[in-house]
Amino acid sequence: MKNFYYLTILAFLFSCTKEVKIDIPGYTEQLVVDGNIEAGGHPIVILSKSANIYSESYITAYINSFVSDADVKVIVDSDTFQLDYILTTELPISSQKKLAEMLRIEWNELLQLPIRVYSSIDLIAEQQKSYELLINHKGKNYSGKTYLPATTPFDALFWKPESTNSDYGYSWARLSDPPNQYDAYKWEVRRINKKNGEDLDLTFRRGFGAYREDKYFDGLTFEFFYENPLKRKDTTHLEGLKRYYRIGDSVVVKFSKMDKRTYEFFDKKSAQMESSDNPYSTPINIPTNMTGGALGIWAGFSPWYDTLYCQP
């Protein structure tokens, strides 16, 4: 009787199951644009093909996806600049470092990779101008436009030691945000302390919360702090205070402005990357300022620089 009871329960459970079929849309390859133009610098554009979510992901596959046969131009005012497809080592050093920052790898690592980008040394970007990117690839046209706003310098930049350990502290700044206009900012840093005659950090780095818009502080003057996002190999730096700057550090702060479309792309992209390990996070659609069906961004920045000396 007991066996019959168990068999009845199992039969009931199996009878309640239902086969669910999920129709997953097929993969469609798209052009991916990773473009950057910075006031005082040259344009850098990486074109690649989107990858199937189920395909392998590694650096060689990424490089192999690069698009080398596109016609790429940038228009500013009434001038048109043709971008050439060139090796990283043929770029000016400032552009090499900028590319390393875009890919978030070390400068010396970049120089060892067979990477080519579209660029032009004849074009040096300026603030308060719009730059239009035009791409023709396999008979299809794509375009994007970005604006380089005027910079907003800090009122003050200073280091404030912690009360619990006066050898460590955050970087602080006082900012007067321009009123009645849209402003978005990016914070990056690199140390210029010398080691064997060379700066400790050869490229700029950004950390969590590097992108901010003035939605909640339009027109206000306020102070804020930012933590240290730099990698440290100094074993004398206390592990529990690795996000602080140490007394004696000299740090160049790069504070850049961008337009709204550029901010929205990087804000959503940062949120996606920061939540990628969370299985309960909500999927995020990253916007683009490209037309024609391309993914990615044609991003423009206007940087302003200041030097922070970590001394009381």
Written description of the protein model:
- With 312 residues, the chain is an alpha+beta fold.
- The protein is built from five helices and 18 strands.
- The N and C termini lie far apart (84 Å).
- The model has no long low-confidence stretch (mean pLDDT 89).
- A hairpin with a 2-residue loop joins β3 and β4.
- The chain is globular, with a radius of gyration of 24 Å.
- It has a twelve-stranded mixed sheet with strand order 13-10-16-18-1-2-5-4-3-6-7-17. Strands 8, 9, 14 and 15 form a four-stranded antiparallel sheet that branches.
- The chain has two domains: 31-148, Immunoglobulin-like (Sandwich), CATH 2.60.40; 156-259, no CATH class.
List the helices and strands and how they pair.
Layout: H1 2-15, E1 31-38, E2 44-49, H2 59-64, E3 71-76, E4 79-87, H3 93-103, H4 107-110, E5 116-119, E6 129-137, E7 140-148, E8 156-161, E9 168-176, E10 184-191, E11 194-195, E12 198-199, E13 211-213, E14 221-226, E15 245-246, E16 250-258, H5 260-274, E17 290-291, E18 295-309
Parallel strand pairs: 1-18
Antiparallel strand pairs: 1-2, 2-5, 3-4, 3-6, 4-5, 6-7, 7-17, 8-9, 9-14, 9-15, 10-13, 10-16, 11-12, 16-18
Radius of gyration, taken over Cα atoms and rounded to an integer in Å:
24 Å
* Main sheet attributes: strand count, strand direction, barrel closure: 12 strands, mixed
Q: Beta-strand level of the residues, as a percent range?
A: 35-45%
Order of helices and strands: HEEHEEHHEEEEEEEEEEEEHEE
Low-confidence stretches: none
In CATH, the architecture of the largest domain is Sandwich
How many angstroms does the end-to-end distance come to?
84 Å
